[in-house]
Amino acid sequence: MALLITDECINCDVCEPACPNDAISEGDDIYVIDPDLCTECVGHFDEPQCVVICPVDCIPHDPNHVETESDLMSKYKRITGK
């Protein structure tokens, strides 16, 4: 499933450059993740880089965008063309 940044975000800006799919952007109040671009780093890394680097642990799975590992890999291939 895609990831979601909660309102606990402190806008530290470490997650945005860590995302290999450019799925993270600055929202009105906090950073946001585009579920159409988020692959949880499947295809790039073993674990989501935004989750690893987030100092406040505010990036859980998005229950509104449930996806399997296979779904995430298909999305990775679509996004990267690989």
How does this model look, in words?
This protein has 82 residues and is of the alpha+beta class. It has helices spanning 15-18, 49-53, 69-80, and strands at 24-26, 31-33. Strand 1 and strand 2 (31-33) form a beta hairpin. Keywords: 4Fe-4S, Iron, Iron-sulfur, Metal-binding. Residues 1-29, 31-64 form the 4Fe-4S ferredoxin-type domain. This is YfhL family 4Fe-4S dicluster ferredoxin. It holds the Pfam family Fer4.
The secondary-structure class comes to alpha+beta
Return the string of H and E elements: HEEHH
Mean of residue pLDDT values = 96
User: Biggest sheet, strands in spatial order?
Assistant: 1-2
Oligomeric description of these chains: single chain
* N-C termini distance: 20 Å
Whole-angstrom Rg = 12 Å
Helix count? 3
Number of strands: 2
User: Major sheet: size, sense and barrel closure?
Assistant: 2 strands, antiparallel
Keywords: 4Fe-4S, Iron, Iron-sulfur, Metal-binding
Protein name: YfhL family 4Fe-4S dicluster ferredoxin
Domain 4Fe-4S ferredoxin-type: 1-29, 31-64
Organism: Psychrobacter glacincola
